[in-house]
C-alpha cells in the first residue's frame, strides 16, 4: 500500500480529533460568551468561509430558490435545534460528558428509522441500544463531577443534550432523504447560513434585553475566544466537513465510522487533560456502556445493510 492510500485514513482520524476537541473549545468560550452569541459567531465564520470558497470557485453550489424550502426543513433540525441543545448542554455539564452523550446519535437514528422509515431493528441492535440507554442512566446518576454546577443543572444539561441527540437523529433521517436530490455541499451551505442568521439575531436580541450587548466586542479581544471561534467556525465546521467528504469518497462508510467512534474518547481525554475535568466511577462505567452501545448499533446496522446498499454516514458535531 502506497503512502497516498493512507491519506483517506489520516483524514478520517483528523476529523475525529477535530470533532472530539470541539466540545472542549465550546466549554472554554462559554466562559466569555452566552450560548447564542457563541453559536452565532461560529456559524457566521463558517458561512463566510464557505461563501469565500464558492466565490473563488473552490466549491460548486447549485441552489435554486425553489429548493430552499426542502433544504430549510433539514437545516431546522441542524443547526438550529441541534446546536441550541448541544451548546446549552455543554454549558451545564462537561466537555467529556457531552462528547459521550452526543455519540448516541447513531443509536437515535436506528430508533427513528424503525418508527419513521419502517426499517428493521435486529435483536442484536436492540441489545446495544439498551446498553447505550443504560449508560446514560448511569452517567446521570454519576452527578455533577467536574461540571461546576448543581445536581439540578447537571440533570438539566443531560436532558438538553438528549434533545441534541434527538435533533441529530431527525437531521440524519431528513438529510438522508434530501441527499437523494441535493449535494452535501448545497445542504451544508444552507445549514451554515441559516445558523448564522438565526443565531446572531437571537444572540443580539437576547444580549440587548439582558444589557449584555457589549459582550460581543469585549469578548472578542480575549485570545481564548478568538482561538475557540476560529477552531469551531473553521476547523470543526468547514475543514472537518471537507476531510470527512474526502474520506467517504475513498473509503466505505462503515470503515470511516470506526474512526469516528473515537470522537467521544477524544472528548473525554481533552476535557480531563486540558480542562481539569473529573470523571467519577459512574461516569466511566456509564460512558463505557454508551460506547459499547454506539459501536454495536453501528456495527450490526452496517452488517444488516451491507448486502443491499452502501450506507451514508451522518455526523453531527
What this model shows, in words?
With 317 residues, the chain is an all-alpha fold. The protein has one domain. 76% of the residues lie in helices and 0% in strands. The chain is built from 13 helices and no strands. The chain has helices spanning 7-29, 35-55, 68-92, 95-102, 105-116, 123-141, 151-178, 184-209, 215-219, 223-250, 253-260, 263-275, 281-305. Helix 1 packs across helix 4 (95-102) and helix 3 (68-92) runs antiparallel to helix 7 (151-178). 49% of the residues are buried.
How many distinct helices? 13
Order of helices and strands: HHHHHHHHHHHHH
Structural class: mainly alpha
* Number of self-contained structural domains: 1
Q: How far do the termini sit from each other?
A: 32 Å
Low-pLDDT parts are: 307-311
Mean pLDDT: 86
Which terms summarize this structure?
single chain, 317 residues, mainly alpha
Helices and strands in order, then pairings?
Layout: H1 7-29, H2 35-55, H3 68-92, H4 95-102, H5 105-116, H6 123-141, H7 151-178, H8 184-209, H9 215-219, H10 223-250, H11 253-260, H12 263-275, H13 281-305
Helix pairs in contact: 1-4, 1-10, 1-12, 2-8, 2-10, 3-7, 3-8, 4-7, 4-12, 5-6, 5-7, 5-13, 6-13
Amino acid at each position: 500500500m502506497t503512502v497516498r492510500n493512507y491519506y483517506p485514513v489520516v483524514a478520517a482520524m483528523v476529523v475525529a480529533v477535530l470533532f472530539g476537541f470541539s466540545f472542549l473549545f465550546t466549554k472554554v468560550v462559554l466562559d466569555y460568551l452566552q450560548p447564542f452569541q457563541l453559536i452565532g459567531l461560529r456559524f457566521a465564520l463558517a458561512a463566510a468561509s464557505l461563501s469565500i470558497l464558492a466565490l473563488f470557485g473552490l466549491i460548486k453550489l447549485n441552489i435554486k430558490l425553489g429548493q430552499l424550502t426542502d433544504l430549510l426543513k433539514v437545516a431546522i433540525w441542524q443547526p438550529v435545534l441541534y446546536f441550541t441543545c448541544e451548546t446549552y448542554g455543554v454549558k451545564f455539564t462537561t466537555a467529556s460528558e457531552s462528547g459521550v452523550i452526543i455519540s448516541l446519535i447513531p443509536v437515535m437514528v436506528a430508533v427513528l428509522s424503525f418508527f419513521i422509515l419502517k426499517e428493521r431493528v435486529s435483536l442484536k441492535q436492540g441489545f446495544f441500544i439498551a446498553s447505550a440507554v443504560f449508560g446514560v442512566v448511569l452517567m446521570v446518576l454519576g452527578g455533577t463531577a467536574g461540571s461546576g454546577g448543581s445536581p439540578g443543572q447537571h440533570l438539566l444539561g443531560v436532558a438538553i443534550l438528549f434533545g441534541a441527540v434527538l435533533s441529530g437523529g431527525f437531521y440524519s433521517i431528513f438529510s438522508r432523504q434530501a441527499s437523494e436530490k441535493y449535494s452535501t455541499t448545497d445542504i451544508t451551505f444552507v445549514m451554515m447560513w441559516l445558523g448564522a442568521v438565526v443565531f446572531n439575531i437571537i444572540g443580539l436580541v437576547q444580549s440587548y434585553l439582558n444589557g449584555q450587548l457589549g459582550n460581543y466586542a469585549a469578548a472578542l479581544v480575549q485570545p481564548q475566544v478568538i482561538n475557540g471561534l476560529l477552531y469551531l467556525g473553521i476547523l470543526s465546521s468547514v475543514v472537518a466537513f471537507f476531510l470527512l467528504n474526502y474520506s467517504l469518497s475513498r473509503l466505505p462508510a462503515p470503515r470511516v465510522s470506526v474512526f469516528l467512534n473515537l470522537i467521544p474518547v477524544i472528548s473525554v481525554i481533552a476535557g480531563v487533560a486540558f480542562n481539569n475535568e473529573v470523571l467519577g466511577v459512574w461516569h466511566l462505567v456509564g460512558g463505557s456502556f454508551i460506547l459499547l452501545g454506539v459501536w454495536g448499533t453501528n456495527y450490526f446496522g452496517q452488517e444488516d445493510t451491507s448486502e443491499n446498499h452502501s450506507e451514508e454516514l451522518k455526523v453531527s458535531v
